[in-house]
Structure formats: structure tokens, C-alpha cells
Amino acid sequence: MPKFRIITVGKPKLAYAKLGAEEYLGRLKHMLPVEWKTVKAGAQKDEGEQLLKASEGWHRVVLDERGRSWGSRELASILEDWDMNAVKEVAILIGGAEGHGPALKAKADVLWSLGKATLQHELALVVLLEQLYRAQTIRRGEPYHRD
Predict the structure, then answer these.
(1) What average pLDDT does this structure show over 41-66?
(2) Listing from the earlier edge strand, what are the strands of the sheet with 59-69?
(3) C-alpha 50: how far from its chain's center?
(4) Are 64 and 100 in contact (CB under 8 A)?
């Protein structure tokens, strides 16, 4: 299983987002190697440079509303593919309030959309973590996901 690094711009300030992120990170740590790193908020260009530096050498998955959308079972299959194809490290990047600039998107291995709606970046973190958790429970045959 690849090691996952979730990289966000800043830490959540909204209480529900902080609690949600902590909840799903706690659940995920029992299933896969995952760490959460933050970079300092600032101008979009500066945020992008920090995100690129923090993900250097990793398989970059950049969250963007114009990216590919995966259902939960498809995400579980993608995780399985990464595992089988010896992808060692996956960095998932969540931008700040202004999103990601074109320079960062150009260096992404994958653009992933959590849906057609634009999500506030703190909420996107919680949704991302929940989807990783859901995909892992699908892979493990646990009853969390229901079709």
C-alpha cells in the first residue's frame, strides 16, 4: 500500500472541519500509512510553490473541480491499482481559498474532482479523508459502504 501525504494550505479554522479531519485521520491510521502536512496560506503562486516542494518525488494527486470524478468503488480500485503497480508515495494536494494555479496543475499526475460543486477547502479535506476511509473499507470487505 502506498504511503499517503495529504497536504493542505493552512489548518482548518472551522470547528466541524477540524473535528472531521481528526476523526477520519484516526480511522485511516489503522488502515494505511497516512500523514497530514500543511503549508502556509498566502498568494496562490506562493501556496503552489510550497505544495510542489512538499510533494516533490511523490505521485501528485491535485484536487480540482475540473478533474476526473471517481465513485467510491472506483477509488477503491484505483488504490488497488496503485498498490499492485508499486506506487510507493501518493501526495494529495488541497489548495487554499483561491484554489490551484495553472503551474501546479501542470505538474499534477492526476487531477481529481470530488464532485461538480466547488467545495470550501476545509470541507474538501473532510470529504477527501472520508472517501479514502470508505475506499479502504471497500477493499477490506467491511460493511461501512453500502450499495
Answers:
(1) 96
(2) 34-39, 3-9, 89-94, 59-69, 110-113
(3) 16
(4) yes
Given its phi and psi angles, is residue 107 left (phi above 0), alpha (psi -120 to 50 degrees) or beta?
alpha
- Is the pTM higher than 0.70? The answer reads yes
- Identity at 33, one-letter amino acid code: P
- Alpha carbons 51 and 16: distance in angstroms, whole number: 24
Cβ atoms of 121 and 9 closer than 8 Å: yes
Is there a contact between 60 and 103 (Cβ–Cβ < 8 Å)?
Answer: no
Distance CA 146, CA 95 (A): 30
Q: Angle, to 10 degrees, between the axis of helix 72-84 and the axis of helix 121-140?
A: 70
Considering the four listed CATH numbers 3.30.70.120, 1.10.8.640, 3.40.50.300, 3.40.1280.10, the one that applies to the domain covering 3-140 is 3.40.1280.10
